[in-house]
Amino acid sequence: MRSSDDRVYLAPVDHLRAVAAVLVVLYHGCQLLSARIEGRRFVPATDWLYSSNPAATLVFEGHTGVALFMVLSGFIFTVGAYGKPVRYGRFLTNRLLRIYPLYLVVALLGLATQVSLPTLQDLLRILTFATPTQPYGGVFWTLCVEMQFYLVFPLLCRVLAERGPGALLRLLAAVAVLRALVWLSSPAPAPHTASLYLGLAGRIDQFLLGMLAAWVYAHHRDRLRARWLRPLAPAAAVALLWSFNQVHGFVSDSPLKLLWSGAEGAVWALVVAVYVANRPAGGGGWPSRAAARLGEVSFSVYLTHFMVLTLIGEHMTGRAYGWLPGALPPVWAAFLVTLLVALPLTVAVSFVTYHAIELPFLRLRRPYLGPAAVAETPRPRQREGYRGR
Known about the structure:
With 389 residues, the chain is mainly alpha-helical. It is built from 16 helices and no strands. α1 crosses α16, α5 crosses α16 and α8 runs antiparallel to α10. It comes from Streptomyces lavendulocolor.
């Protein structure tokens, strides 16, 4: 990105974006295509995949890539804006330029798959991201949550700069209490947690924890370089996801699920802070550059992978399955089809959509940060073309 733009360049962050995008693609591919290979539609309540293998549960619970994306949003915005005044109008304009162009293309294409002509209500739902039922809309709800976070980020960043991390920790505690009160006050005999989990009320923990990780990174970077932290951070994330899978957490409405967003955000905040602190921005050779390039187009991967999976599920599952060894369990077949067919195809499409649709609008963004109001820790170098999500 340009030095005046709104993102700090960190190659390690691009690596983590790539991880998040790949996890989401593998997760959706395994869950959806395994059912299609068996000749049926996927029903989460009864068809969720479980395993005692921690590596498998990382894929089966790959929806956690969304949490990683949200933690990264809080982290990168805060590293870039900490201690500086944010010009609110320009900030929101930049966010719209970041999200809306590709989102509108994908949403309108999904609308075009319907037989009937779109109504005004359909168009209004698209403008507000309220289109999860269309073929490619399974991830649109996260964009709505992101936009809600953008509305409050400048205030939260100022609070962090002026009041310190304790203010955000108290906010985390208050949100947890209020969320529990909402759940307890539900008139339903068995209150659902989905509405909380799929909205900012249930996900703000992850943005706040990303902001706190940025504060720790800025003030205690040397401590994050402790050798024992490097294996502990990813191990904690995998162990937490394995435990979540073993108790059938995603399809559960246990009150313990009210704590899941914070726990999930905490382990990813640890992973982000430790990885960024320990990974040189310019090192790693071609694998690092390749991962960074994938991370650069991760938003396109995120928005277009449903289109690719829908194509494979509707028209190519049988053919792709036929390429694989006989007697292969459906879940393994789905994993291989996703890894060898859906993921490469999605990445290829994403490079096209990034350069043709995203990048022209990204170049229209304007600086939104004023001069530093407090002394800052030196920030990492920046790069042309870097962008959010």
